Amino acid sequence: MYHSVPAVASAHPNEHQVPVGELEDQLSALTEDGWQLVGLTEALSRRDADPAARVLGVTFDDGLLDFRNAVEVLQRVGARATMYVPTGDVGLRLAPDDPHGSRLSWSELAEAAAAGVEIGSHSVNHRTMDVLPGEELRTEIADSRHQIEDALGLPVRSFCYPHGYSSRRVARAVAAAGYSNGCIVGRRIASSRDDPYRLPRLHVRPGVTGDAFAALVRDGEPGVAPHVKRFAAPAWRLARRTAVQVLHRELT
């Protein structure tokens, strides 16, 4: 799981920014080690056909403008990937120093797709899906898919939950909207036991190269944090839902 791919490292390190040089080192190391680097939907299809295949799904979130740097890397190393786009932000242009980052336009997304990138949905407005009421949830999930398909003329199979927040209810809504898979953050290696609509990913941070990067792909993220977050998710969801309800009452 990647987000921003700046041309040079930031003076203020950000865990969501992996400079283009590091990205190329990481993906090159994987291809040299025999991994097939593809988008998430293709990775699942290949594993279904051959469970022993050395396949790795590469994903990018948020549709950031500097993904154009990543596309060049993907082409150089012979890899593909999935880019998850919040459709409400497509084409947004901000000042270079704005921390939110400018976003790819529809024409730029079409160019990425032509280069072998799967375009997936990241909802319309990048809201936390698991605290939304039913109709708003369905709108965020279904409208984003239709918008991408209408703009690019391509099928949209994969959904990425904004901020990684999901639930069984949300996963059912994603399936009902016509997607074939969905991914969270998870910070662990996916297995055949995982729900295909709630697949975990490994968060690649800047500076994780060489042996550390090889260990990440082989063993998953270190420490107990990924496991603690998984077990704490229901309580944290309840707290966030309560906060949303309180805010709604105050506004009305």
Provide the β-strand percentage band. 5-15%
Mean pLDDT: 91
- Total helix count? 8
Helix and strand run: HEHEEHEHEHEHEEHH
Low-confidence segments, ≥5 residues, pLDDT <50? 244-248
Number of strands: 8
Estimate percent helicity: 40-55%
Cα distance, first to last residue?
A: 38 Å
Radius of gyration of CA atoms, rounded to a whole number: 18 Å
Strand order of the largest sheet: 3-4-5
What structural class do the secondary elements suggest?
A: alpha/beta
Biggest sheet record: 3 strands, parallel
Shape field: globular
Structure at a glance:
This protein is of the alpha/beta class. It contains eight helices and eight strands.
Describe the protein in words:
The protein has 252 residues and is of the alpha/beta class. It has eight helices and eight strands. The strands form three sheets. A three-stranded parallel sheet has the order 3-4-5. A three-stranded parallel sheet has the order 6-7-8. It has a two-stranded parallel ribbon with strand order 1-2. α2 (40-49) links the parallel β1 and β2. α1 (20-32) packs parallel to α3 (67-77). It is globular, with a radius of gyration of 18 Å. The termini are far apart. The model is unreliable at 244-248 (pLDDT under 50).
For this entry, give a set of tags.
globular; 12% strand; 3-stranded parallel beta sheet; 8 strands; alpha/beta
